[in-house]
């Protein structure tokens, strides 16, 4: 295990500190609450000469992603960050980045989409882009943000993957709350991320290439199949990179984190900061002898169906919590994918969809206890709103 | 057209790694009509050559004079721009 230093960091600080240690060639940015703190910190590192990065202040997120794409296509290592409306505005170029197979890392402080306008945390922004070919990893707390950011560079640039990675954290709840973060030495991070090595890029004058040409009925489909194949290749490669990083941090990562699942009868599945709240509830209910457990998915793209279903099959009933509504769908997006994966694997776990926390609405330990109690009592309601005044 | 390759065979992300391979792409197959040149009427003004978006008008010397000499039909997509700009009725869509 490598030496660490303790820092009092918000999730935004953790993301920008990782970016400083990675020291990318280019960062393009536009301020968007609550992500702004990330690129504001990073701008200070640039001004103070602590990084060698070319910092591009663009006039919109569409241009931010375009500039990042340009930098990576040229052969550089580039990063950015955004939230909510910014992610929605850049959505066209988000799909271009993965379609052109350009590795990059984007920190996203998840925030509700308009309208009505709202600056607080939910997952409607990331759900909007989850099918655009980016690897999507979620962080419970600033420590996990920091570690996911560093691993994301290697995952993204792996020659068998070459896909961009979005590192999600809950807006404000994680991005602006201070916690202790153990940070690695700069040299340790530098050694882990290494030099970017792609065999084809625009500024390789000896081997000229064209990036981004037209493909019609003859080749477009093949190129999309390749992009999907790369996602499934990531299923093999991500555990290898995590295992390598584990040697440095001494921690275990994985597709999901199980909390007190061994003899659990019911479980909640929830991502990001709410998993932290739920762990406290699990402990309190276990004290009362109630066999409850938690599954925290870390990735939703690629979708670790085998790992999630294997974990879910340990319990009789589960509630899958989505912090966004897929309007008109029968339950939340994560619930639906998990239900489908469960059915395909002949699982019998009874599943319930919980919609919660929109626009930063508090999700309290009492709310989560209520969900667990409902599962224990055999609540048959398929879709349940938690925390809304109905 | 060369035979179509599989997802395993092509470079990722639609990248082109052989410069100039648009020569293999015969846009002439898009055309429903293509221009016919009447060299006798051509004055060699070169309007068609400069306006053709696909550089499809061949030129050369005819009896010691500079003239349009033909159309590269395998690339001419039949847009009709050359016909529209020719002031001497030397090009017609057919
Ligand atoms: S029809 Fe269009 S493409 Fe064809 S020769 Fe004329 S200008 Fe060029
Ligand atoms: S525009 Fe007409 S006259 Fe002029 S070069 Fe072309 S064919 Fe000849």
In a nutshell, what does this entry contain?
By secondary structure, chain A is α/β, with parallel strands linked by helices.
* Strand-pairing-aware structural class of chain A: alpha/beta
The second-level CATH architecture of chain B is 2-Layer Sandwich
Q: DSSP strand (E) fraction of chain B?
A: 15-25%
Strand order of the largest sheet of chain A: 3-2-4-5-7-6-12
Bound molecules: iron/sulfur cluster
Number of strands of chain B: 4
Please give the order of strands in the largest beta sheet of chain B.
Answer: 1-4
Low-confidence stretches of chain B: none
Query: Might you state the CATH topology name of the largest domain in chain A?
Result: Rossmann fold
CATH class of the largest domain in chain A: Alpha Beta
Protein name (chain B): 4Fe-4S ferredoxin-type domain-containing protein
GO molecular function, one term (chain B): oxidoreductase activity, acting on the aldehyde or oxo group of donors, iron-sulfur protein as acceptor
Keywords (chain B): 4Fe-4S, Iron, Iron-sulfur, Metal-binding, Repeat
Cofactor (chain B): [4Fe-4S] cluster
Plain-language structure description:
The complex is a heterodimer of chains A (390) and B (94). Chain A has helices at 11-22, 36-47, 61-74, 84-89, 91-99, 124-129, 142-157, 186-193, 220-249, 273-287, 305-312, 333-344, 365-376; strands at residues 4-9, 26-29, 54-57, 78-82, 105-110, 135-138, 165-170, 179-184, 256-259, 266-269, 292-297, 299-301, 317-322, 350-356, 383-386. With 390 residues, chain A is of the alpha/beta class. Chain A has 2 domains: 4-249, 3-Layer(aba) Sandwich (Rossmann fold), CATH 3.40.50; 256-386, Rossmann fold, CATH 3.40.50. Chain A has a 7-stranded mixed β-sheet, with helices on both faces. In chain A, strands 9-11-10-13-14-15 form a 6-stranded mixed β-sheet, sandwiched between helices. In chain A, helix 1 packs parallel to helix 2, helix 1 (11-22) packs parallel to helix 7 and helix 11 (305-312) packs across helix 12 (333-344). Chain A is globular, with a radius of gyration of 21 Å. Chain A starts with a strand and ends with a strand. Chain B starts with 34 loop residues before the first strand and ends with a strand. Chain B is of the alpha+beta class and 94 residues long. Chain B has a single domain (24-93), classed as Alpha-Beta Plaits (2-Layer Sandwich). The radius of gyration of chain B is 17 Å and the shape is elongated. Chain B has helices at 47-51, 81-85, and strands at residues 35-37, 57-62, 65-71, 91-93. The longest helix of chain B has 5 residues, at 47-51. Chain B has a two-stranded antiparallel ribbon. A two-stranded antiparallel ribbon of chain B has the order 2-3. In chain B, a hairpin with a 2-residue loop joins strand 2 (57-62) and strand 3 (65-71). Chain B contains 2 helices and 4 strands, in the order E-H-E-E-H-E. At the A-B interface, helix 9 of A face loops of B. Chain B: InterPro entries: 4Fe4S_Fe-S-bd (IPR017896), 4Fe4S_Fe_S_CS (IPR017900), PorD_KorD (IPR011898). Chain B: GO terms for molecular function: 4 iron, 4 sulfur cluster binding; metal ion binding; oxidoreductase activity, acting on the aldehyde or oxo group of donors, iron-sulfur protein as acceptor.
């Amino acid at each position: 295990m490598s030496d660490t230093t303790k820092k009092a960091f918000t999730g935004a600080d953790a993301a920008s500190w990782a970016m400083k240690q990675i020291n990318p060639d280019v960062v393009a940015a536009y301020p968007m609450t609550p992500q702004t703190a990330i690129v504001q910190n990073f701008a200070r590192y640039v001004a103070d000469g602590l990084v060698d990065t070319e910092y591009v202040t663009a006039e919109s997120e569409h241009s931010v992603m375009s500039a990042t794409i340009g930098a990576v296509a040229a052969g550089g290592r580039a990063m950015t960050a955004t939230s909510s409306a910014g992610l929605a505005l850049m959505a066209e170029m988000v799909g271009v980045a993965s379609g052109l197979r350009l590795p990059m890392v984007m920190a996203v402080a998840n925030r509700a989409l308009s309208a009505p306008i709202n600056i607080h945390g939910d997952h409607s922004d990331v759900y909007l882009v989850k099918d655009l070919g980016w690897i999507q990893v979620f962080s419970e707390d600033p420590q996990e943000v920091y570690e996911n950011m560093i691993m994301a560079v290697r995952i993204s640039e792996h020659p068998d993957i070459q896909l961009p990675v979005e590192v999600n954290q809950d807006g404000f709840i994680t991005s602006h709350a201070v916690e202790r973060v153990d940070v690695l030495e700069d040299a340790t991070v530098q050694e882990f991320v290494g030099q970017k090595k792609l065999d084809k890029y625009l500024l390789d004058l000896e081997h000229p290439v064209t990036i981004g040409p037209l493909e019609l009925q003859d080749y477009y489909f093949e190129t999309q199949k390749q992009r999907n194949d790369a996602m499934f290749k990531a299923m093999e490669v991500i555990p290898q990179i995590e295992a390598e990083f584990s040697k440095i941090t001494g921690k275990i990562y994985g597709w999901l984190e199980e909390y007190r699942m061994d003899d659990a009868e019911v479980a909640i599945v929830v991502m990001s900061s709410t998993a932290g709240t739920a762990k406290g509830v699990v402990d309190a209910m276990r004290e009362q002898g109630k066999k409850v457990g938690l599954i925290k998915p870390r990735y939703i793209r690629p979708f670790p169906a085998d790992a999630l279903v294997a974990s879910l099959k340990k319990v009789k009933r589960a509630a899958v919590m989505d912090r966004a509504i897929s309007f008109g769908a029968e339950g939340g997006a994560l619930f639906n994918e998990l239900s489908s994966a469960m059915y395909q694997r002949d699982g019998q776990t009874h599943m319930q969809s919980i919609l919660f926390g929109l626009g930063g609405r508090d999700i309290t330990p009492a709310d989560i206890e209520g969900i667990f109690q409902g599962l224990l009592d055999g609540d048959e309601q398929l879709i349940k709103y938690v925390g809304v005044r109905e | 057209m060369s035979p179509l390759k599989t997802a395993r065979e092509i470079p990722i992300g639609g990248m082109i790694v052989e410069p100039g391979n648009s020569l293999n792409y015969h846009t002439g197959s898009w055309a429903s009509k293509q221009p016919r040149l009447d060299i006798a009427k051509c004055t060699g003004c070169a309007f068609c050559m400069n306006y053709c978006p696909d550089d499809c008008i061949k030129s050369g010397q005819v009896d010691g004079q500079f003239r349009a000499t033909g159309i590269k039909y395998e690339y001419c997509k039949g847009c009709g721009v050359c016909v529209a700009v020719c002031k001497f009725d030397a090009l017609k869509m057919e």
